[in-house]
C-alpha cells in the first residue's frame, strides 16, 4: 500500500501508541529520499495534536571519522559496515523499555559530518519515537533484531533521478566538487541505495514522496 499525506501518516503513527508502553516507528529508505524531513514533519504534527513524540535518527550511530580511518572504511562512509548497528539496537531496546529516566540518544551533525553523543532527549513522557535510517530492513545481523523492536517500519520511496540529484547537491554543499560528488554518489551511495531498495517489500507501508 502507498500513501503520502501527512494527516494519513500521523493517524497511522498515533495508532501505534497504546497505554502503558512506548511505540517505536521506523522510516527506512535509500540515501537522499527525505527520511529525516518526513520524520520531522510527522513528529511536529503529532506534537501539535498533543502526542509526546521524539525523532531519533539512526545516523547518530555513524562511526566517527577516526574510527573509520582505523578500520580502513573512510572511503565507504555510509555503507552498512560504517554504522554501529549493535549500539543502535541497544538504544532502541532502552527507548522501548525505560520509561523512568531520560534516554539520551546521539545525532549526526551534517555541517561536521560527525556523530554527536547525547544530543537528543527521550523523556519518560514520550509515548512514541520515530527513528529513521537506511538499513532498518536489512537482513544481516543485528538489523532484524532492531526491526523486531519497532512496531512498524515504513519505506520512503522517491524517484531515482531526484534522489541522486539530491545526494550530489548534499555532497557539494559539504565541500566536494561537483565531479567528486557525482563520483561518490556513483561508487558509494548508489550501491548502498540498491541494497536498501532491495528490501522495500519487507516494509509495512510504502510512502511515496
In short:
It contains seven helices and eight strands. With 209 residues, it is α/β, with parallel strands linked by helices.
Q: Notable features of this structure?
A:
6-stranded parallel beta sheet; Rossmann fold; alpha/beta; two-stranded antiparallel sheet; globular; 22% strand; 209 residues
Q: What share of the residues lie within helices?
A: 40-55%
Instruction: Calculate the terminal CA-CA distance, rounded to whole Å.
Output: 14 Å
CATH superfamily: P-loop containing nucleotide triphosphate hydrolases
Main β-sheet description: 6 strands, parallel
Main structural class: alpha/beta
What's the helix count? 7
* Strand order in the sheet with the most strands: 1-8-7-2-6-3
Name the CATH class.
Alpha Beta
**H/E series, N to C?**
EHEHEHHEEEHEHHE
Contiguous uncertain segments of 5+ residues: none
Query: How would you describe the shape?
Result: globular
Would you mind describing this structure in some detail?
The protein has 209 residues and is α/β, with parallel strands linked by helices. Helix content is 40%, strand content 22%. It contains seven helices and eight strands; from the N terminus they run E-H-E-H-E-H-H-E-E-E-H-E-H-H-E. The protein has helices spanning 6-14, 35-48, 65-71, 85-97, 143-149, 160-173, 178-197, and strands spanning 2-3, 23-28, 53-57, 103-109, 114-122, 128-133, 152-157, 205-208. The two termini are 14 Å apart.
Lay out the secondary structure.
Elements: E1 2-3, H1 6-14, E2 23-28, H2 35-48, E3 53-57, H3 65-71, H4 85-97, E4 103-109, E5 114-122, E6 128-133, H5 143-149, E7 152-157, H6 160-173, H7 178-197, E8 205-208
Parallel strand pairs: 1-8, 2-6, 2-7, 3-6, 7-8
Antiparallel strand pairs: 4-5
Helix pairs in contact: 1-2, 4-5, 6-7
Amino acid at each position: 500500500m502507498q500513501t503520502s499525506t501527512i494527516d494519513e501518516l500521523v493517524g497511522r503513527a498515533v495508532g501505534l501508541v497504546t497505554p502503558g508502553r512506548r511505540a517505536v516507528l521506523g522510516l527506512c529508505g535509500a540515501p537522499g529520499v527525505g527520511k529525516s524531513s518526513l520524520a520531522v514533519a510527522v513528529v511536529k504534527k503529532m506534537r501539535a495534536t498533543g502526542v509526546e513524540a521524539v525523532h531519533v535518527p539512526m545516523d547518530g550511530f555513524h562511526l566517527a571519522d577516526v574510527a573509520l580511518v582505523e578500520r580502513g572504511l573512510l572511503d565507504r562512509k555510509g555503507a552498512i559496515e560504517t554504522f554501529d548497528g549493535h549500539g543502535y539496537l541497544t538504544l532502541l531496546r532502552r527507548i522501548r523499555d525505560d520509561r523512568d529516566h531520560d534516554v539520551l540518544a546521539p545525532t549526526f551533525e551534517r555541517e561536521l559530518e560527525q556523530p554527536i553523543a547525547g544530543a537528543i532527549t527521550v523523556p519518560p513522557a514520550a509515548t512514541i519515537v520515530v527513528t529513521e535510517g537506511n538499513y532498518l530492513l536489512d537482513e544481516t545481523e543485528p538489523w532484524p533484531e532492531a526491526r523486531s523492536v519497532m512496531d512498524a517500519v515504513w519505506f520512503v520511496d522517491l524517484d531515482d533521478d531526484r534522489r541522486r540529484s539530491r545526494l550530489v547537491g548534499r555532497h557539494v554543499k559539504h565541500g566536494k566538487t561537483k565531479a567528486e560528488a557525482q563520483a561518490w554518489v556513483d561508487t558509494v551511495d548508489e550501491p548502498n541505495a540498491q541494497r536498501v531498495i532491495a528490501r522495500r517489500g519487507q516494509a509495512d507501508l510504502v510512502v511515496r514522496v
